[in-house]
Structure formats: C-alpha cells, structure tokens
C-alpha cells in the first residue's frame, strides 16, 4: 500500500486501508484485525494516525447520518463527515456550531482527536462542543460516552488511542450571522503593543503574516451580527480595510468584503470547493502559549526572523479559550496559538523546530497534535498525560490502537 498524507511529507506504513460501509462491518473489522487506526482526511502532518505493520480504517463511506436532538440541543453525525458538509446542513435547519477551524475540509473525528480549533477569546477548541462520542473498542463492541461519564474529558481529545470513533454529538445553537472584515498591512509593532485589545476586538480574530516583516499580511475580524449590517473600523494598527473585489472568482479565501452572511459561510477561512492553504505544498507546526505571554512569545520569534522567514509561507496567530479536556493544549489556560505554515523544506524545518521550542521554552509551549513538533517527553506540558494513558489502558489493554506517536509522548503506554 502506498498512501500519503495531504502534504505528501508522510507515507503511511500500514499494510492496508479499509472502507467499511456500515458500523456492523466496522465492528467486525476491528474485532478481527490485530492492529488498527482510524484515518481521517489526512490533514495531519505527522504519524498520529499511522499503524505500522497494521491496518487503517477510513469512515468516508459512511453517510453523515445527521440527527438533531432538539431537547439536548445537539447534532449527532458520523465521525468521517467534514465540517464543510455538516455546517450548511445545520444552517438549513436554523442551527449553528460555536466555531469552525480555518479549513472546512477536515473530518469531525480527526479534528476533535487532534484538538483542532478556530479562533476567539471566548471560543474553545472544537472538542469543547463534544457532548458525546460513540466508538468501537478493540473487541468490536460499540460504546457511547457522554458528559455523564468521567471518561469524556479524556476521549474528547483522544489522539486516536481509545478506538475507532463512529459518531460524535456536538452542541448546537440557533443560527447567527457573521460580518467578516480583513485588513492588510497592520503594523507588527502596533499589534504587539495592543495585542490583547486586537484579539478581543471581534468574536474571532486571526493574524496572518511573516514573523519577520514590518507589517502583517492580513488581520481577520469576524463579528457576530444580531441585526443590521454591523460596522468595522476603517483601520486597525495602521492596517487598511481590504476590499477583495479584485480577487478571482475561484479564490480559495472567504473574504466577503464586510458583507454579513450565515456563520457557515464566514467562520472558516477557506471555501470547501477550493484547495485550502497552499494546496498541500507545505508543512505545518503550531504551539500554544498562555495568552498572557503572547506578546513576549511573539517578540521571541521575531528575534529569530532570519532563521524562520526563509522557510515560511506565513504564520496564523489565534486565541483559544481555556478548557478542562485532558489532552487539550488549552487545558486550564487561555491560549495564544502560534501557527507556522512552512515551505516544503523538510530538512530545514525539522532542524529548526528544536531551536524554536527552546526559544519558546520560558512560555511553556504545548504542541498541536496534528502538526510537526520536536519535543518528546510531554508530561511537564500536559499534567493529565499519566491519567490519560491509564484510561487508554482500560480501553485498549492489548495495544490494538497503539503506535509510535503515542510511544513518543513520554509516559509508559498500555499493556506489556
């Protein structure tokens, strides 16, 4: 089997990939196969989903099976469904999710397993919307874990370690409109001086640009609009409002020129019908630091601009609210996320990562689970890692879902 991730920087070392068309078929596969992992939309840049010498299982052939529970205010959906498929369906029913990530292309199961997130001072990672998870355990049994269980804070960011997640229940709310405004050429110095105010200036705020430049490429404000058309300042930190009227009709970004629209068309940065980011010709890294350390952490990175910028497409800087999910990079602290979209320079990037991590060490960075990082023993960064591994052992004593990625986390794994 020759299969790579989206960016083609990783070739999976599993022996086969399976596409069950029903949950019953999936249960039979999991019970029969000695070593398996779930594979999502392959947007991870590391081997978190690999199963060396084992098998991979994709749920892409399971229908979304969208079910609304009005009493619980949740939606149930198959884990292989993308947010880009779910979001417009919810909008048609007058419902919404709290937030979306930059890319709508990613599967719900993969996104929650890796602590993927959007932005906003009051918005948690996508896993904080998880009300329940249904999964197939190593023996093929189907179990459901909801908020009444002490296990959900472990499983909501499960790193693929507990089993094959089949369905996810997510909190929903009434639909809302969003006005999205984009500014270009905001001053880095002014942004750093007023970073807290900038990141608090809208429901969701993102900064995008070269860490070594004098100005940011773009600054994205997404405002929730209750009525009317809303408004936006003509300038932020010296940056000017970006009229995207000259963009090609097929442009991948969802800029929309300050025109309010449904959340499902505004909360993601990229359109589902176009290749996201730079089309996979990239590598990605992301670290989370306490929001109070944000300006100093960014200044530390700017001091490394000569080393970083030659290998960088750009950085995406966002905020994430604290949560209580054991393996969340935002566990018990409000965070600023520092995302790097690298050029396809694998040797240089892998050499640079330990240097960046050492520079950020005073700010106790935590990595994004689906992206590239060098740090190994993470027990100091994730205080519940030992508890997490014990819970993994209770679900998978025979190590059916174990892999080298989990081995590298620095805590003894389940089983012998």
Assembly state (oligomeric) = single chain
Determine the structural class based on helices, strands and strand pairing: alpha+beta
Proportion of β residues? 15-25%
What top-tier CATH class of the largest domain fits best? Alpha Beta
CATH architecture assignment of the largest domain: 2-Layer Sandwich
Task: Report the sheet with the most strands, covering strand number, pairing sense and barrel closure.
Answer: 10 strands, antiparallel
* First and last CA, distance: 29 Å
Helical fraction:
10-25%
- Stretches with pLDDT under 50, minimum 5 residues: none
CATH topology of the largest domain: Alpha-Beta Plaits
How many individual domains? 2
Radius of gyration: 21 Å
Shape field: globular
Mean pLDDT: 93
- Count the DSSP helices: 12
Number of strands: 20
């Amino acid at each position: 089997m020759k299969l790579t991730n989206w960016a083609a920087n990783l070739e999976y070392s599993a022996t086969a990939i399976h596409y069950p068309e029903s949950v019953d078929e999936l249960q039979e596969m999991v019970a029969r196969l000695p070593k398996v992992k779930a594979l999502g939309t392959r947007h991870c840049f590391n081997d978190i989903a690999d199963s060396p010498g084992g098998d991979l299982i994709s749920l892409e052939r399971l229908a979304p099976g969208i079910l609304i529970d009005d009493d619980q205010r949740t939606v149930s959906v198959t884990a292989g469904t993308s947010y880009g498929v779910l979001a417009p369906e919810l909008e048609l029913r007058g419902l919404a999710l709290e937030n979306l990530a930059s890319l709508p292309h990613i599967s719900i199961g993969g996104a929650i397993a890796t602590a993927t997130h959007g932005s906003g001072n009051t918005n948690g990672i996508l896993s904080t919307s998880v009300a329940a998870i249904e999964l197939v355990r190593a023996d093929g049994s189907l179990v459901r874990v909801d908020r009444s269980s002490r296990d959900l804070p472990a499983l909501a960011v499960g790193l693929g370690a507990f089993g094959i997640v089949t369905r996810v229940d997510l909190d929903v709310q009434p639909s809302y409109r969003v006005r999205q405004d984009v500014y270009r050429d905001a001053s880095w110095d002014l942004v750093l001086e007023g970073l807290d105010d900038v990141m608090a200036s809208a429901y969701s705020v993102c900064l995008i640009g070269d860490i070594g430049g004098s100005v940011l490429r773009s600054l994205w404000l997404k405002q929730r609009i209750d009525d009317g058309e809303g408004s936006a300042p003509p300038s932020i930190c010296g940056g000017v409002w970006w009229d995207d009227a000259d963009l090609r009709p097929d442009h991948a970004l969802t800029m929309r020129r300050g025109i309010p629209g449904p959340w499902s068309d505004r909360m993601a940065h990229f359109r589902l019908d176009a290749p996201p980011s730079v089309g996979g010709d990239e590598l990605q890294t992301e670290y989370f630091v306490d929001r109070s350390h944000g300006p100093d952490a960014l200044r530390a990175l700017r001091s490394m601009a000569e080393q970083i910028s030659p290998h960088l497409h750009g950085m995406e800087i966002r905020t994430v609210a604290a949560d209580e999910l054991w393996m969340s990079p935002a566990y018990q602290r409000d965070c600023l996320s520092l995302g790097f979209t690298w050029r396809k320079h694998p040797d240089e990037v892998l050499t640079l990562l330990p240097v960046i991590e050492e520079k950020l060490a005073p700010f106790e960075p935590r990595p994004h689970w689906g992206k590239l990082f060098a740090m190994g023993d993470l027990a100091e960064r994730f205080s519940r890692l030992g508890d997490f591994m014990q819970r993994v052992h209770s679900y998978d004593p025979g190590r059916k879902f174990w892999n080298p990625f989990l081995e590298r986390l620095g805590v003894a794994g389940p089983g012998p």
